[in-house]
Structures are given as structure tokens and as C-alpha cells.
Specification:
The chain is mainly α. It has helices spanning about 1-15, 15-40, 50-75. Helix 2 (about 15-40) packs antiparallel against helix 3 (about 50-75). About 5% of the residues are buried.
Length: about 80
């Protein structure tokens, strides 16, 4: 009902709620970026040690970029 909804919204708009949402969103972005990295590996590409490190940094940069884009769209 309305009371439960207002309590839920109060929790989500509090600092711990916002932090939880931000961390959860980053985890989803990281998981997506790393999943794409693993799909490339499944094709047998980028398996040298240098490529693994490079793709790791690229994946992390992609996850942060995606997080910032999605978070900016949610806040704006």
C-alpha cells in the first residue's frame, strides 16, 4: 500500500540506498563488460598474456564508462 511504498522510497532515496543502487549498477556494468570479454575469449582470440591484461584494462574502462552513462541518464 501507500505506506509501504513511501517507506521503500525513503529507503532508496537515503544515502545507504543510493550507495546500494550505485554499487549494484556498477556490478551489472562490470558483469556485462566482462561477459563480452569472455565471449571474445570463447572465439580463441586475445588469449596471450599481453592481450589478457589489455582487455582487462579496456573492460574496466568500459564498465566505468557505461556506469557513468547510465547513472547520468538516471539522475538527469
Amino acid at each position: 500500500g501507500p505506506d509501504s511504498y513511501s517507506a521503500y522510497m525513503a529507503l532508496l532515496t537515503s544515502l545507504p540506498g543510493k550507495l546500494f543502487c550505485a554499487v549494484s549498477l556498477f556490478c551489472l556494468c562490470y558483469h556485462l563488460a566482462n561477459g563480452l570479454r569472455h565471449l571474445v575469449w570463447d572465439t580463441g582470440r586475445a588469449l596471450s598474456l599481453k592481450s589478457i591484461y589489455s582487455s582487462g584494462y579496456l573492460m574496466l574502462a568500459g564498465a566505468v564508462t557505461l556506469f557513468l552513462l547510465v547513472a547520468w541518464r538516471v539522475v538527469a
